[in-house]
Every structure is written in structure tokens, then in C-alpha cells.
Specification:
Helices cover 15% and strands 24% of the residues. The chain is of the alpha+beta class. The longest helix is centred in the last third of the chain and has 10 residues. This is Acetone carboxylase.
């Protein structure tokens, strides 16, 4: 078994590119206001994933991803 962690990749379906953005979100119907869940995004999918979350009023912050 390897001690190395798996590389962080984009959360978009079928994408295996390295993550460069953290999309921090929560569902206000089920999460407390301070709770943050994270989707990772590559540069190509940052906008589409952000738009998906924003349309549902889930998106809270977008930050550069650092491991």
C-alpha cells in the first residue's frame, strides 16, 4: 500500500484533470450556515460547476485549490 495520497481531480463528471479551484458550498435547507462542502474544479470546469451551484443558491466561495 502506498503512502501517497491520490491526486486531487476535478469533480466534473468524466474529467480527470488536476484540480485548480475549490468550490465551497452548502445547502441551506440541510446544512448549518457555517458548514462548507467542497467540489474541486479544473480551469475548464470552474465556470460550469460554479454556475450549477449558484443557480441553486448553494455556492458560497471559490478559492484557488492548494493541496
Amino acid at each position: 500500500m502506498s503512502d501517497e495520497a491520490a491526486p486531487a481531480v476535478c469533480s466534473a463528471r468524466g474529467c480527470g484533470r488536476p484540480a485548480t479551484w475549490s468550490l465551497l458550498w452548502n445547502n441551506p435547507k440541510i446544512h448549518t450556515p457555517d458548514r462548507r462542502k467542497t467540489w474541486l474544479a479544473c480551469d475548464e470546469h470552474k465556470e460550469s460547476l460554479s454556475d450549477f451551484l449558484a443557480r441553486r443558491s448553494f455556492l458560497r466561495e471559490v478559492e484557488p485549490f492548494t493541496e
